[in-house]
Design the sequence.
């Protein structure tokens, strides 16, 4: 992977896939997710190692993706993977 090149190409070779115990499987170009309605929040992150940082996050809200795919009631965990097309 070459993140600098991928970023320069605006992540056009990447896709997001959500599958498993969901009603509607999602496969989408990552660029479409970046261009989608985005949220923003400022969050304090406290690490168990004793450091903390306040970060400004922006992007597609996980809640929006979960509403789209409708996970089964039994789902307890979500694993997110981005895949390159290369």
Sequence:
């Amino acid at each position: 992977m070459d993140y600098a090149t991928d970023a320069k190409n605006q992540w056009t070779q990447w896709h997001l896939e959500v599958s498993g115990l969901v009603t509607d499987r999602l496969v989408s170009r990552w660029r479409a997710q970046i261009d989608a309605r985005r949220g923003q929040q400022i969050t304090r992150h406290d690490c168990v190692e004793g450091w903390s940082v306040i970060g400004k996050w922006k992007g597609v809200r996980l809640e929006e993706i979960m509403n789209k795919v409708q996970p089964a009631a039994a789902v307890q965990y979500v694993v997110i993977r981005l895949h390159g097309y290369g």
